[in-house]
Amino acid sequence: MWDRDWRTHPAPAFTLYPADALAPVPAVGRVFRKRHTRLVMTWR
């Protein structure tokens, strides 16, 4: 089962920032720059 086997593994986390905000650059992950927002995906 996923719950038993994978719940404790690393998973992505998403944080949304306004386009003009200073979004952190993750060591592992990616920043998706859009017209009005910055979506930061990190692994935790």
Features:
single chain; 44 residues; mainly beta; 3-stranded antiparallel beta sheet; 3 strands; elongated
Give the secondary structure arrangement, pairings included.
Blueprint: H1 2-6, E1 12-18, E2 29-33, E3 37-43
Antiparallel strand pairs: 1-3, 2-3
Describe the structure.
With 44 residues, the protein is mainly beta. The protein has one domain (10-43). The chain has one helix at 2-6, and strands at 12-18, 29-33, 37-43. A 3-stranded antiparallel beta sheet has the order 1-3-2, with no helix packed on it. The model has no long low-confidence stretch (mean pLDDT 90).
Rounded mean pLDDT is 90
Please give the domain count.
1
Return the structural class: mainly beta
Quaternary arrangement of the chains shown? single chain
Topology as a string of helices (H) and strands (E): HEEE
Helix content: 10-25%
CA(first)-CA(last) distance: 21 Å
Instruction: Catalogue the unreliable spans.
Output: none
Strand residue content:
35-45%
DSSP strand tally: 3
Main beta sheet strand tally, sense and closure: 3 strands, antiparallel
* Shape assignment: elongated
Rounded to the nearest angstrom, the radius of gyration is 13 Å
Q: How many helices in DSSP terms?
A: 1
Strand order of the largest sheet: 1-3-2
